[in-house]
Amino acid sequence: MQAQSKEDQRPRINLRPLLLCALGLVFGIFIYYRIRFGGLAPSDFCFPLVFLALLLVPPRPKRLLFAALALILFAGAGAGLAHLGAERYAAGKPQGEYAVSGTVTSVVVRHGYSEALLSSLFFGGERVEGKLTVTVSSEQVRAGDILYFEATVTKNGLPMSGDSYSEYLFYSDIRYDAGTVEYHKTGTSQNPFLALNAALYDRLHEGMDRHEAAVAYALLTGDSRGMDQGLTEEVRSGGIAHIFAVSGLHIGILFGAVLLLFKPIGRKAFLPAILAAFLYTAFCNFTVSSCRALVMCAVLGGYRAIGRKYDFLESISLAALLILLFSPAEWLSAGFRLSFGACIGLALFSGPFGRLLKKCRLPAFLSNYLSANLSVQLFTMPVLLQTFGYFSVWGLVLNLIFIPLLPVLFLTALLFAALAVAIPPAAVLLCVPEALISAMLLLFSLGDFGLVLTGFSLGTGATVWVVGALLMSERVRMKALLRGAAAVSLAGIFSLALVLENVVFTGARGEVFARRSGGALLLRTPAAAVLVIDGGIRTKELTDILSRRFGGTLDAVFVVSEDELDGINHAFLLPAEHIYARDEIETGLNDAPVSFAQTVETGGMRFTYAARDKLMIFFGDVSLEVDFGGEQTLGTDLFVDASESLQFTMRDGIIYL
Predict the structure, then answer these.
(1) Which residues of 36-70 are buried (b: 16+ CB within 10 A; e: fewer)?
(2) C-alpha span between 446 and 469 (Å, rounded)
(3) Are the C-beta atoms of 647 and 655 separated by less than 8 Å?
(4) How far apart are alpha carbons 268 and 247 in whole angstroms?
(5) CA-to-CA distance for 126 and 401, rounded, in angstroms?
């Protein structure tokens, strides 16, 4: 009885100062971006409140004071740094004609042209912060080249809510775009890592087939943009895209291999191992996942070198602090959230899952893999669904095959590529990694692994999921009965949140999506789902919207654009029963369900074209005007009869009618 009483007096979770500081920093950055780019929701405060409740039960003055100070200071620092970053990104040169000079930091070579990313920019001889994208009609551009050209430069704005591409531009600090230009190469950068990158690209493409060379380059640098688009999509839907994005796996493999190589010198083996990891991270341009892995390897090796016990959660927290203090915009990166989510999942659940699977008498290698993979999936699943709109069904199986092969493939490719760069005639040895890559691609092509969970949103269910994962972990001390009750309750709340987010029971729900090239409105009632699109929005953006929000067949797609043909061509590739436009034109599409009319009724709604680029939607006593002809990508106005009242809420671009 006395022992139980003492157990009850222990805090629900152990206090880790770095973890608390990291959570405070993340919360401040998150809240700032939600206010500026997306809009706050009550559920945004759920996780920090639950965490604090667990941390401060039972209440202890010192813990309470430390927690309050740490959260306030680091949340304030996070919000302040995020604000400075946003203001710095928004500042700079306006759109206009400039003579531009910049250094190529990365490049994708296509058939007949190249897409380059430039840094160290000069506009008209004046130094400019940020990066610039440009397309040139040449396949000879390489990393480290200094280019000069004259062009009309456009300025990228701050991210739009829900627009993953504008968020990518923001956290990558890509502030400008120059379109397609004619260029002059004026020199070569003295940066040795850029020179090495260019040499690696040339040696791989000289010594290997173009297809295998692109895969090898992605495997070694994390830049998969040169891979075949179809293969890239298959790899993503198969749940093994992390193999081609330099991550903790790659850094860990290299760190472990060097440790093993220098094992005879004892604890000092940590020094060459961390040096190799650092140089490789620099070569990969200090990506988030590689930096996170570098910090964790440094902490692990340092602790072992001095004989101190390693704390996984503290090292994760230290890595997050360092990255976000340097670049708070990385919070918007899916790579950051996936990388740290995977590590947190491992820290919280790999032990419990491992013990459970051992009781099932599975082979050691299989139980270790399953416990690690299931732990990772717990925290990465909501990120994948919210960010990319899908979750791979085959990921668990494919990772069981490819992860054990990765050390052999990665180290072999790294070794022979290094030899080819150092000794050009040794490029003939690249036939070895080429054969391994060909075998891997053949293995991957034997089946259709494109099955994914898609077409719905977690909404607040994502918060419920994360909170539930925290409560269910062994790091939170709870009695078995209480833990079981919490699990049942959270499962019910999660299911309810999922239904309310994705099912329309009464009235209508409209969701506005603004993209750089155009806009769309997804309007749903209990009887129908209709998509209204601008002709400028691209098919890939439309399929991305539907993958995140609607997985069925649309009852209708309405094209609202001066260029109706372009809009119809995009709509034709969507799962829709009917496509409508205002003025009859020749589409050239055989058997396409295209109709031309000024007024259409479907799903209890009436749609009336006021012009090619203006559509009135009537539902009950509510009228909604969708106008693509204004300055904004998508303009919407709500009109209601004067004798009636309309109650609606707008949150994250969603209009609830």
Answers:
(1) ebbeeeeebeebbebbbebbbeeeeeebeeebeeb
(2) 35
(3) no
(4) 25
(5) 52
Query: Angle at CA 478, nearest 5°, toward 473 and 481?
Result: 110
Based on C-alpha coordinates, what's the Rg of the chain?
Answer: 27
315's CB contacts (< 8 A; 6+ apart) are 295, 296, 299, 300
Specify whether 126 is located in the same domain as 184.
yes
How far is CA 227 from each of CA 139, 169, 241, 471, rounded to the nearest angstrom?
15, 21, 12, 41
- Tokens 């923001």 — which residue? 170
User: Of 68, 90, 112, which one is at a domain's C-terminal end?
Assistant: 90
Structural domain tally of the chain? 4
545 with 595, same domain: the answer is yes
Residue 644 placed within a domain: yes
37 and 155 assigned to the same domain: no
Cα separation, 621 vs 640, in Å, equals 6
DSSP 8-class letter at 576: B
Q: Are residues 495 and 581 in the same domain?
A: no
Output the pTM of the full model: 0.84
**Residue 487 sits in the same domain as residue 590:** no
Among the residue ranges 59-73, 94-108, 131-145, 524-538, the one predicted with the least confidence is 59-73
CA distance to 87, 101, 122, 130, per residue, from 90 (Å): 5, 21, 17, 10
pLDDT for 501 beyond 90: no
Alpha carbons 373 and 239: distance in angstroms, whole number = 11
* Residue 6: CB atoms within 10 Å: 9
Would 207 be classed as within a structural domain?
Answer: no
Domain boundary among the residues 172, 190, 208 is at 190
Domain housing 73: 2-90
- Output DSSP code: residue 56: T
Report yes or no: 579 and 594 within 8 Å, Cβ to Cβ.
Answer: yes
The answer as to whether 360 is a domain residue is no
The alpha carbon dihedral of 148, 151, 155, 161 has a sign of negative
Q: What letter represents residue 68's amino acid?
A: A
Contact 323, 336 (CB under 8 A): yes
| For residue 652, pLDDT beyond 50 | no
Q: Is residue 27 part of a domain?
A: yes
Residues 611 and 529 in one domain: yes
DSSP state, residue 9: T
- Dihedral of the CA atoms 507, 512, 513, 518 (nearest 10)? 120
pLDDT (tens digit, 9 = 90+) per residue, 166-195? 888 999 999 999 999 999 999 999 999 999
**DSSP state, residue 35:** I
Q: Which of 244, 239, 546 is nearest to 392 (CA)?
A: 239
